[in-house]
Amino acid sequence: MNRFYGTGVAMVTPFQPDGEVDYPALERLINHLIDGGVEYLVSLGTTGESATLSKDEKKQVFAFTAKTVNKRVALVAGIAGNNTLEVIAEIKAFDTTGYDAILSASPHYNKPTQEGIYQHYKAIAEVSPLPVILYNVPSRTGSSVSADTTVRLAKDFKNIIGIKEASGNFDLMNQLMRDKPEEFLLISGDDPITLPMIAMGAVGVISVIGNALPRQLSDLVRVCLTGDFKAALPANYSLIEFTRLMFAEGSPAGVKTALKQLNICGDTLRLPLVQVSESTAAKIKEQIGKI
């Protein structure tokens, strides 16, 4: 599980201007991230606009990503949904070649009870050929995975190895850190609070801004993991405005704008997502010049 200590990046999916997947740009992005020193990559999470890709496109992106990464870093597949049977079928059909874990967000829209969330993940854990990382992101799903439910899952299923926690609820995280099995991983899912989360016991981050700034972010996270938070503060402060801009008009619109400025990929998104405004794009360009 040490493979998931440090910086993971939830990769964007580059698109050509006509909306088709841009595989040369995806290759550039992967190499940009690995050269930037990140510890692992996440393919087709929320940041990858997975909700707008067809099953065939997902299969092709997963395969291309695994081939390009070529085991240079650990690799996680985002497989989630609000139809448990469909998620199970997708996991059973998934080609695990080159992958080390599955990241699965709790069901969106349905707003299940805690028992429903538990049963959803229980069904996933029982069929998954890879370790599972839970993902709690109530701002997107409409419901939160409680600390009690996370701890229950961690204790009942050894292949549920951690949680990407993006609730921003430090009371929940305090309870989780107190009660979880020692080996269970708390991972920040929220760039702005990565430093304080590591201070309370998180082992790193699965990041959005790391798409654009892998070296700066991974260096910051490594310093935090040594426990020298005073030394980490200047780097943390230097990223505050850039991070704010990445989410000012939605993700991944902001970070795709940054990646366009860095000549990694274009800023095309698939509807219902749209590009950031010209004024925000100008601010992002200015921030990149300062970092």
From TrEMBL:
<keyword id="KW-0963">Cytoplasm</keyword>
<protein>
    <recommendedName>
        <fullName>4-hydroxy-tetrahydrodipicolinate synthase</fullName>
        <ecNumber>4.3.3.7</ecNumber>
    </recommendedName>
</protein>
<feature type="active site" description="Schiff-base intermediate with substrate">
    <location>
        <position position="164"/>
    </location>
</feature>
<dbReference type="GO" id="GO:0008840">
    <property type="term" value="F:4-hydroxy-tetrahydrodipicolinate synthase activity"/>
</dbReference>
<keyword id="KW-0457">Lysine biosynthesis</keyword>
<dbReference type="GO" id="GO:0019877">
    <property type="term" value="P:diaminopimelate biosynthetic process"/>
</dbReference>
<dbReference type="InterPro" id="IPR005263">
    <property type="entry name" value="DapA"/>
</dbReference>
<dbReference type="Pfam" id="PF00701">
    <property type="entry name" value="DHDPS"/>
</dbReference>
<dbReference type="InterPro" id="IPR002220">
    <property type="entry name" value="DapA-like"/>
</dbReference>
<feature type="site" description="Part of a proton relay during catalysis">
    <location>
        <position position="46"/>
    </location>
</feature>
<keyword id="KW-0028">Amino-acid biosynthesis</keyword>
<dbReference type="GO" id="GO:0005829">
    <property type="term" value="C:cytosol"/>
</dbReference>
<dbReference type="InterPro" id="IPR020625">
    <property type="entry name" value="Schiff_base-form_aldolases_AS"/>
</dbReference>
<feature type="active site" description="Proton donor/acceptor">
    <location>
        <position position="135"/>
    </location>
</feature>
<keyword id="KW-0704">Schiff base</keyword>
<comment type="pathway">
    <text>Amino-acid biosynthesis; L-lysine biosynthesis via DAP pathway; (S)-tetrahydrodipicolinate from L-aspartate: step 3/4.</text>
</comment>
<comment type="function">
    <text>Catalyzes the condensation of (S)-aspartate-beta-semialdehyde [(S)-ASA] and pyruvate to 4-hydroxy-tetrahydrodipicolinate (HTPA).</text>
</comment>
<comment type="similarity">
    <text>Belongs to the DapA family.</text>
</comment>
<keyword id="KW-0220">Diaminopimelate biosynthesis</keyword>
<feature type="binding site">
    <location>
        <position position="47"/>
    </location>
    <ligand>
        <name>pyruvate</name>
    </ligand>
</feature>
<dbReference type="InterPro" id="IPR013785">
    <property type="entry name" value="Aldolase_TIM"/>
</dbReference>
<comment type="subunit">
    <text>Homotetramer; dimer of dimers.</text>
</comment>
<dbReference type="GO" id="GO:0009089">
    <property type="term" value="P:lysine biosynthetic process via diaminopimelate"/>
</dbReference>
<feature type="site" description="Part of a proton relay during catalysis">
    <location>
        <position position="109"/>
    </location>
</feature>
<keyword id="KW-0456">Lyase</keyword>
<feature type="binding site">
    <location>
        <position position="206"/>
    </location>
    <ligand>
        <name>pyruvate</name>
    </ligand>
</feature>
